[in-house]
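User: Sequence in, structure out. Go.
Assistant: Echoing your sequence, followed by the structure tokens.
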Amino acid sequence: MIIYLHGFRSSPTSIKSTALKQRMAELGLQDSFWCEELPVSPKAAIALIEAQIRRAWAASPLPPTLVGSSLGGYYATWLSEHHGLKAVVVNPAVVAPLSLEAWVGPQTNLYTGETFLFTHEHIAELQALEVPVITDPERFWLLVETGDALLDYREAVRKYAGAKQTVLEGGDHGFSRWNDYIDEVIAFAGLLP
């Protein structure tokens, strides 16, 4: 199973999530894809994802693989460390508490238009999820584009040293070449030969 974790102000209808879901359906793997709207609260988001990890493990001997974009990559890193799971992190938020400090206040979801309040309590919850050092880089695959205007890709390259890394020139925070890597992501999860 692939558990897809969307980013801050994003949703399950994001471009990457939708493309991955569609490709998995084309391959007859629709039952091996999960992506739900993550709560604004990092603590609540982790609880929701951990419940899905437990369900996935109960349903299959193959451990689930996490795929996280931006803030979802930050969550995937913590979850990978705590559950021993493989993770694909796409333009991940490496220092989310610092990166998101400027976003405290009213926010709007880019896909749904729904408004929400992002608070200092949420920043504290993010700090509790900090992973100072990756213990098993071989579980990770980092996908970054150097043209990401929101996050410095070099921080991710340092953070995931020793992991499989795909660093592409140009692009943007949305990882513009996502469709070129979808089948490889599905294979990394052990769902394709």
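User: And one key feature?
Assistant: The chain has a mean pLDDT of 95.
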